[in-house]
Amino acid sequence: MKKFLPWIIVGIIALGLYSWAKGFNNTAVTLNENVKESWGNVQTAYQRRNDLIGNLVKTVQGAADFERKTLTEVIEARAKATSISIDPNNITPEQLAQYNQVQGGLSGALKSLLVTVERYPDLKTNQNFLKLQDELTSTENTIQTARTRYNEAIKPYNVHVNTFPNTILAGILNFDEKPYFDSEAGADKPVDVEFDFK
């Protein structure tokens, strides 16, 4: 019996290591899939906004002799925003920052468009425009919710791969930490609101 004791101990240790590695891997895969699903929801929300912007621009063009510069800025920002694609498996902080920057540029151009619309009373009463504007507002809220849920999905994944001893297997099995969505540049500054009562 004594001669088999070392083999029994080695077998128990091997079984324990196998069980730990299997549990780590399966949990990491599950959490990573949750992150991918959440990222897909973020992209779906942004895609909906991009689709609405196309319809909004057509409505504005058809309803008014509109300022070409503002429309051009929106169209160019939309093209930039749709040109960036991120693989959720290999997402890096730099990619996410770039994605966030172009989406922020589109948000800024869109805000300029909606502010400029205020000068066109006919357009402000156009039912198609009003419906699109409402849908766009709803979509912006959906984007915010999707981004928040993405960050919520990232947290358990990052905790799982960064806690010891899981961090050892994470490095071996290529389960890298994933970046969180940060606020858009300039979001920390107070908004300058001016009222023109003329």
What does this protein look like?
This protein is an all-alpha fold and 198 residues long. The chain has a domain at 28-36 and 50-173. Helix content is 75%, strand content 0%. It is built from 6 helices and no strands. It has helices at residues 5-63, 68-83, 93-117, 121-125, 127-162, 166-173. Helix 1 (5-63) runs antiparallel to helix 2 (68-83) and helix 1 (5-63) runs antiparallel to helix 5. It is rod-shaped and about 95 Å long.
Keywords:
6 helices, 198 residues, rod-shaped, 75% helix, single chain, mainly alpha, disordered C terminus
Q: Estimate the mean pLDDT confidence.
A: 82
Report the radius of gyration as a whole number of Å: 25 Å
Query: What is the overall number of helices?
Result: 6
Distance between the termini: 99 Å
Main β-sheet: number of strands, strand sense, barrel status? none
Coarse shape? rod-shaped
Q: Which structural class fits the helix and strand makeup?
A: mainly alpha
Strand content: under 5%
Question: What share of the residues lie within helices?
Answer: over 70%
Low-confidence stretches: 190-198
H-E order = HHHHHH
Task: Kindly state the number of beta strands.
Answer: 0
List the helices and strands and how they pair.
Elements (H helix, E strand, L loop, with lengths): L4 H59 L4 H16 L9 H25 L3 H5 L1 H36 L3 H8 L25
Give a short overview:
By secondary structure, this protein is an all-alpha fold. It has helices at 5-63, 68-83, 93-117, 121-125, 127-162, 166-173.
